[in-house]
Amino acid sequence: MKRYIILFLGLATVFSSCEKDNYTAPKSELSGQIVYKGEPIGVEYNQVRLQLWQPGFGKLAPIDAPVDQDGSYSAVLSNGNYKMVFPKGRGPFKTLEKDAAAKDTLFVKLEGSQQLDVEVMPYYMIRTPQFSGAENKVSVTLKLEKIITDASAKDIERVSLYINKTQFVSRATNVGVTDLARADIKDLNTISVSTTVPALVPAQKYVFATVGVKIKDVEDMIFSPVKKVDL
């Protein structure tokens, strides 16, 4: 009896090894940017993500594709059919519905690496941000364009200027921030914000800066491109 058990276990191990050997690791890259009319949407690093679902493989679980500061995303996947969505309520924008059946789901057929930009409708766009630096100070001027103007439009809560020693600069990662409340903004076409640069250790003659806009009742902020500012 022991001989049969040992033989069975040996065969099970062989088949298990064969299954592992036959497994093909994902090698196709799906990449692109989150855009509005082809223009990238800046977001906070590691806060916004896309989810990819591949039906037909047992228990469903999404594959997350984090969106970078410049609106880019990427994921290494196996070839096949995927459904791409944003988690509900994420992003400083509205997703676009293709039709009543698909709603805002994108259907992707992946056969090798592919680039796919995802079009969205932001509540606002940051226009012409101009950063300048002086001793212990960084300033920015900008305009805000209100994109959504129908019944689903939203007001802004504040405009914030963030600075950091590295290019990773956001609400969570910064050495200085100044908030400008909506009540202090008289004209969306002429906004200016300044912040003080603290003592940097080790010392450096530059910082990285970005300006973000917090929209009322929307968790994620929209950001300008990060710029290096000489002091």
TrEMBL record:
Which positions fall inside the DUF3823 domain?
A: 28-121, 124-228
According to the record, the signal peptide region is none
**Pfam families given in the database record:** DUF3823, DUF3823_C
Name the chain's protein: DUF3823 domain-containing protein
The source organism is Dyadobacter luticola
